[in-house]
Amino acid sequence: MLFTQTYLSCCLLVVVSVVNITPVYSNPQCPVHEFFNTAALKCTAEPTCQNPSPEPECGCVEDNCQQRCECNPGYIRDVYGKCIPISQCPCTECGENEVFNTCASSCDMEPTCYNRTPEVDSCCVPETIQRCECAPGYIRGPDGTCICIANCPCECGENEVFNTCASSCNIEPTCDNQTPVLDPCCVPETIQRCECAPGYVRDPSGKCICISSCPCCDPLTEVLCCTPCCEKTCQHPDGFNCRSHCNVDECVVGCVCKEHYTRDEETGKCVAVCYHKLMKHIHKPVVHHHHHLPIHVL
C-alpha cells in the first residue's frame, strides 16, 4: 500500500497504469541481484551500507518518475556500488572519537602518540579498505583508543620506550646499579613512564646509554653478557640477592665482581674481604689455653 501511494504521488503527471508497478527482475540491463524499477524516486538515493536510510535530497521536487536499476529486496549497495545481502555489510559503528572511512588505503598506517607521521612502506601494494579511524584532532593512544592529541603522554627521549604498565616499585637500572633489588615493603601501583630501551641503562646524568658505554667506576668489576639472577654479596653469601623479575632464560648484560671479590651491599663496591667478616674475626674472643707445667718435687 505504501509503495502504491508513493508511486501515485510520484507519477501524477505521467499517465502510467498502476498495474505496471511490479518490478521487472529479469531485465537484462541490470546486473546480478538488481531489478529495473520504472517508478523510482528521483529525489531519494538508494540505500547503501554506509547510509541504509537515505533522506530525500533537500530542495528536490518529485515531479516525475525515474527509471533505474535497484537492488533486489534484502540487498543493499556496498561501497563499490554492488548489490550485496544486507547481512554482509561491514560494521560501520565505530568507537568513541572515531569515523568510518570507506576509502582508506591498506598501506597507510594510522598516526599514534609515539608515531605521529608514520612512513608508508615502499613495498606495500595499496588496496582500498574500509575501517574506523580517529576523527580529525584525535590520535591513537597507548591503549588503542582515539584520544585528543593534547592528551598524549610525554614523548620519550633518545633510547627510551614508553611503558604503559610499569610498576612503581621497579627501580630503573643504572650504570652504578644495573640489577636493582625490589623493595619488599613497596606497594606496587601501575604507572606510565619512559624507560630505557632493552640493552640501555641510565647514566649519572639520567640519559639512557648502551650498557657497554657505562663508565668504568670500579676496577674490581667485569662485564658479563649474562649476569646471574642472584649475586653473592657480603650480606647474602649464598646468593639470595636476586634482581626483580629475573628470567633465567633471558641474558642481562651487567657488571659483576671479579673472581675472589664480593660485593658489599652497603657500599655497592667489590671487596676482597667482607667488612663484617673481618670485624667478626677481629673481635673474636681469644681463648687462652693455660698449660700447667709439671711440678717437680725435690
Point out poorly predicted stretches.
1-26
Proportion of residues in β-strands = 25-35%
Distance between the termini: 151 Å
DSSP helical segment count: 2
Mean pLDDT: 77
Portion of residues in helices?
under 10%
Report the count of strand segments: 18
Shape: rod-shaped
Biggest β-sheet: strands ordered side by side in the sheet: 1-2
The secondary-structure element order is HEEEEEEEEEEEEEEEEEEH
Radius of gyration: 39 Å
* Biggest sheet architecture: 2 strands, antiparallel
Structural class: mainly beta
* Integer tally of domains: 3
Protein name: TIL domain-containing protein
GO molecular function: peptidase inhibitor activity
Pfam family, one: TIL
Keywords: Disulfide bond, Protease inhibitor, Signal
What does this structure look like?
The longest helix is centred in the N-terminal third of the chain and has 9 residues, at 2-10. This protein folds into three domains: 2-88, Laminin; 98-151, Laminin (Ribbon), CATH 2.10.25; 160-280, no CATH class. 6% of the residues lie in helices and 27% in strands. 11% of the residues are buried. It has a two-stranded antiparallel sheet with strand order 1-2. The chain has a two-stranded antiparallel ribbon with strand order 3-4. By secondary structure, the protein is mainly beta. The radius of gyration is 39 Å and the shape is rod-shaped. The protein starts with a helix and ends in a 16-residue tail after the last helix.
Summarize the structure.
The chain has 2 helices and 18 strands.
Topology:
Layout: H1 2-10, E1 34-41, E2 65-71, E3 75-77, E4 83-85, E5 98-105, E6 128-134, E7 138-140, E8 146-148, E9 160-167, E10 190-196, E11 200-202, E12 208-210, E13 221-224, E14 230-231, E15 241-242, E16 254-257, E17 262-263, E18 270-271, H2 275-282
Antiparallel strand pairs: 1-2, 3-4, 5-6, 7-8, 9-10, 11-12, 13-16, 14-15, 17-18
